[in-house]
Amino acid sequence: MSTPKAVLFDAGGTLVTMDPNRFGDLIEPILGVRPEADRMVQAHYHAMAAIADNQDVLAKGSEVWWPWWLSQFMQFAGLMPDPEAVQALVDNQGLWRWPLPGALEGVAAIIEAGYQVAIVSNADGTVAQDLKAAGFGDLFDIIIDSTVVGVAKPDPGIFTFALEALGVEAADTWYVGDSPLFDLGGAEAAGLAEFVLVDPFGLHDGYRPRISRIDELPALLHA
User: DSSP string of 179-198?
Assistant: First the structure.
């Protein structure tokens, strides 16, 4: 495992998750309930594992697979995936603003150690604003949002924007994300040196390297 020059991060499920307050404001008028924050965090990773096991839904396009994913997420969070509630989530932006434990501290430590850092995320065009709202400020050297650049993971082309902006080679770059489908697949196709899976609930026990939270990453980088 070679030491990289740059570390690229996914955003949702890696550094941030959906804000339970904003999420609750959207669904409570429809379902009459608000979500439990801890259960929402678990639901994210279970829903990501579910779509990795049901890749046929991706072929139907984002207009199908994104509502499908949200329905899975709501079920894992103990909520009824009512079509009206799902559509309310589809129609709204600015949801991914809840920092995951250890994420801010981990990114700060990696920057302090001298690594370049960037975001490569499948997002809705608001990932830069969402990360700033979550407390990350201007920590990242570059932020690549799939909606902005018009390419989404697992297409390896999305990584080219970050590599060129940082002036680094794929062979000198690690990627950190939570999805074996979108993140691992994209990183491997782009030829990145290493992919580190964020797996706080042990859903992918056989995968290595694997961390449960971002503040575990500096030790892995220096191993």
Answer: -IIIIIHHHHHHT-SEEEEE
Whether the CB-CB separation of 68 and 99 falls below 8 Å is answered with: no
Distance of CA 87 to the CA centre of its chain: 21
Alpha carbon of 145 to those of 94, 132, 223: distances in Å?
13, 14, 30
Give the Cα separation of 66 and 14 in Å (integer): 18
Say what the pLDDT of residue 11 is.
97
Per the listing, tokens 């020059």 go with 5
Exposed, middle or buried, 118 (CB in 10 Å: 0-12/13-18/19+)? Answer: buried
pLDDT 10s digits, 148-194: 999 999 899 999 999 999 999 999 999 999 998 889 989 999 999 99
- Domains of the chain plus CATH, in order, are 6-16+97-221 (3.40.50.1000), 20-90 (no CATH)
